[in-house]
Amino acid sequence: MATHPAKAxxxxxxxxxxxxxxxxxxxxxxxxxxxxxxxxxHRVLVAGRTAAKIAAVAQSIAQSGGMAESHVADATxxxxxxxxxxRAFGNPPDPSAPSRDGDADVVVFNAGTIQRSGLxxxxxxxxxxxxxxxxxxxxxxxxxxxxRLAPRGRGTVLLTGASASLRGKENFAAFAAAKAGLRxxxxxxxxxxxxQGLHVAHVVIDGGIDGERLHAARPQAAGAHEAxxxxxxxxxxxxxxxxxxxxxxxxxxxMDLRPWKESF
Length: 264
Ligand SMILES: NC(=O)c1ccc[n+]([C@@H]2O[C@H](COP(=O)([O-])OP(=O)(O)OC[C@H]3O[C@@H](n4cnc5c(N)ncnc54)[C@H](OP(=O)(O)O)[C@@H]3O)[C@@H](O)[C@H]2O)c1
Fold this sequence. Notes:
264 residues; alpha/beta; seven-stranded parallel sheet; 16% strand; globular; binds NADP nicotinamide-adenine-dinucleotide phosphate
C-alpha cells in the first residue's frame, strides 16, 4: 500500500511591514500613520529619536490588537538609518531576492522640525539643523527605501511635506528651503523609480495639524480653532493609507490636504 508523505504544515503568512520614521507624541501624525497601517493589518516598525515616545506608541498599538515594535533612530544619522533598514528588511539585504511575505512594503518619512523667525535671526546652525531633519533625513530614508524596495519592483514611499514645500513666506526661510528640498527628492525619486514599480508620493500638509506639537506651542490658539479648521491626524493618516492602496494605473505623486476653511 502506497504511503503518503505527511502534508507539509502550512504556516500563516506574516503580514507586510510598514516602517514609519519620525514618530513622536501619540497625538502626532507619525503615531496616527503607524496606527492606521496597524489597523490595516501591517506590522509596524515605529521609528523616532525619543525611545520613550516611540515605545509608548508601539505599546498602545499592541494593546489595541495590532502588531508594532519600536526602534530608536535619528533620521539625520546615516548609520542609524542603515541599521533601521537592516532591521526592517534583513541584513545583509539581498536586492536580487524576490520579495517575501512579511517584508516591508511601505516606508513613511514624517520627521520634521520648524524654524519661525525673521531671516536676519536665523543662525547657520539652526538653518542647517532644520535642513538636516526635514531634507537630509528624508533623503537618507528615501535612498534606503529605494535601495531595498526598487529591486523587488514594489512598495510605497510616503513623505510628509507642508505648505512651505510649495512657497516661502516671511519668517520661514529655513523651513521652506528644507521642505522644498524634500519635495524635490520625492519628485526625482518618483520619476526614477516609478517605472520600476515603486510608488513615491509627497503629501503637502497645508494647514496646522491638530496634534501635540501645535497644542504645546500655542495652546490657546489651538484650543480656539473652529471645528475641523486644523487637520485631524487620523484623517491625514487615512489619506496615507489610501495612497498606499492605489492601483498602479492611477498613482498619486503629490497630494495636498487642507482644512475646509483654509485659504490658499
Ligand atoms: N504640526 C503641524 O501643524 C504641521 C503642519 C504642516 C506640516 N507638518 C509636518 O508634519 C510632520 C509631522 O508633524 P507633527 O507636528 O504631527 O509631528 P509628529 O508626527 O508628532 O512628529 C514628528 C516627529 O519627528 C521626530 N523627529 C524630529 N527630528 C527627528 C530626527 N532627526 N530623527 C527622527 N525623528 C525625528 C520628532 O521627534 P521628537 O518628538 O522626539 O522630537 C517628532 O515627534 C512633520 O514633517 C511636519 O513638518 C506639521
